[in-house]
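Reply to dn_fold:

You asked what the input looked like. This is it:
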Amino acid sequence: MSFRSRLTGFFVMIVVVPMIAFGVLAFTLIDSSSRAKVDARAAGAAVTADSYYLALSRNSALDAKTIAADPGVSAAIASGSTAALEARLATLERQAGIARVTVKRGARRLADVGDRSAVAPGVATVVGVAGPAPVTISVAEKSAAEYAGALSGQGVAIVVRKDGYTIGSSLPGADRATLPASRGSVTIDGVSYEVVTRAMSGFGTASIYVTVLSDAAMTSASGLLSHLSAIIFIAAFLVLAFSFSVLASRALQGQIARFLQAARRLAGGDFSSPVPTDGHDEFAALGTEFNNMSEQLERRLAELREERARLRESIRRIGQTFAANLDRPALLELALGTAIDAVSADAGRLSSRSAPDHPLAETDRQGSLTGLESDIYDAEREVLRTGELGESSAEHGHVLSVALRPTSAAERVHGVITVARRERPFSDDDRELLRSLARQAALALENVELHHQVQRQAVTDELTGLVNHGRFQELLSMEIEQVRRYRQPVGLIMLDIDNFKSVNDTYGHPQGDIVLKHVARVVRESSRDADTPARYGGEEMALILPHTDLKGAHAIAERVRTAIERLRIPRLDHEGVLQVTASVGVGASSAGDKEELIAATDAALYVAKRSGKNRTVQAGAQTTNVVGAE
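and this is what came back:
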C-alpha cells in the first residue's frame, strides 16, 4: 500500500467516521426542535384566535348598544311590524358595516338580518319598549370567513365550524377533512398540519369551534436551514482537516515538492535556481538531468531573444526607410514585401486608395494567392469592420490582414495589407509584428501626403486654386530657358477683370471672392493640359502657353475672354446674377527674355483696358519678337 493510500485511510478513520456520527445526532436534534416549533406556533395562533374573538365580541356589544338606542328600531319594535324592523336593521347593518343583527323578545325572534355564519356576537337590551319580556339585540361584526381570513397568515390557516359543519375557512379542502376535537395532526391535500381547536360562544345556544392549523412544512424550512448549517459546519471541518493532512503530506514529500517548484520556475522562464542534488540516490540523478535540461532551454531562449531583437531592429530601420520615402507607390511596395518577409508568409497583396474618397483597389501583389480568394475576402472584410486585424483559416492556408489606419479616427483607412501562408497558422508574435509594420507604413503614407500637401500649398493660391505669383515666375523662367535652348516660342496671356472694384464696393468682398473663383475656373477649363493658369495678383490672372506663338496665344485668349463674358455668377443676396468681362493682353516670345515678354503682354493688357475693356489686344510691334497687334 502506498503512502498516499495509508494517509487517506488514516484520515477516514479519525475524521470522516466521527463527523458522520456527529451529523446523525445533530439532524435528530434539529428535527425534534422543528416539531416543537410547529406545536408552539399552533398554540400561539390559538391564543391569538381567542383574543381576537373576545375583542370582536366586545366591539359587537358596543354596536348592539348603538342599535338598541336607535329610535327607528324602537319604533319598529313598538309597532310590531317585522318588515319595518328588518328594513331599519338592514339600513343600520350597511351603515355600520356589520355582518349580522338579531332582535328577540324573550326567546321569540322578532328579526334576523345579515350573514348566518357571523361569529363573536355582542348583546344589548332595548330600553323603553313595553312588553311581556325584555327585547335584546345581538350583533356580530364579522362573518366566519372574514374572521378566518383575518387570522390566517404565512403557515397558519383557520377553520370555523358550527354544529359539525364548516361555516368559514381560509384553507381550501378543510371542510372535507376530519379535524381533531382538541389537539392533533391532520393531512389535507398532501400537506401536514398541527391542529389546535377551541370552543367559542355563538348566537343563542349554538357553539362555535375555531380550529388553528399550523403548516409543518413552514417550520421544515427553518429545519432545512439548520440542516444546511450543520452540513456547512461538517464540510468546513472536513476541509480544514483535509488541509492539515495535505500539509503533512507535503512535508513528508519535500523532495518531490522541490522538483515541482523547479518545474514551475522553468515554466515561468526562471532558470536561475537549479534543483538541489544532495546525495547519490535516484533523486540526485533526476535533479542532475533536470538541471542539464534547464541549461539547454536557457541557451535556446537566449538565442531566440537575440534573433527577436535583430528582427525588431530590422523593422525599426524599415520604419525609418518608410519615413524617409516620399514615393508613394514605392513605399507601398516596400511595405508589402517587408510584411511578407517579417512573418515568413508565402504571398501577399496590398489594397489602397488613390484618393481619400476613392474605394480600395488592389495596387500590388507578391506571390500566388490561388485558392485563398474567399479567405482573403473574409479577412479583409473583418479588418475593414474592426479597423484592426482580420484573420481566416481554412484547409488551403491561413490569411492575416491588417489595416493601414490613419492617425485621425474620423478618416477612412489608407489601405489593407494581407499576407498568407500555407503550412502553419499565424502566432501572436506574427500579429504584433504586422501591427507594428502597419503603423509605420500608415505614418509614412501620411508623411508623403503631408509633404505633397505642403508643396501644393506653397505654390497654389488658396482662393482660386491656381498657381501663385511666385510659382508663376518660376514656371515662366523654366519655359524661357526652353525657348533659349530649343528656339520654341512661348505664349503669355494676362487678363484683368473689368470693374472688379465696383463689384467689391457694391456687393461686398465675399461676392468679389466668388467672382474670382468662377473666373479662375473658366481660365482653367479653357486652357490646355500643358498650359499653366496663375493668379498674377488681385483680380489679374495669367496663362503660360508652352510652344505657342502669338497667333495661337491670341486664339486661346479669345476663348477665355468669351467664356468669361458668358458667365452668370449667382449673387449672395439671391437677387439675380452678375455678369463680368475681362480685358486680355497677349504676347509671345522666341528670344528668351522673360522680363520683356511680361512687360509687352502687360502693356497689351492696359491697351485693352483703355480701349473700352472686354477685348483682347496683342502685344505691339515694338515688343521684341512679338508678332501682330490688334
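Residues 421 and 624 are 70 Å apart (CA to CA).
Hope that clears it up.
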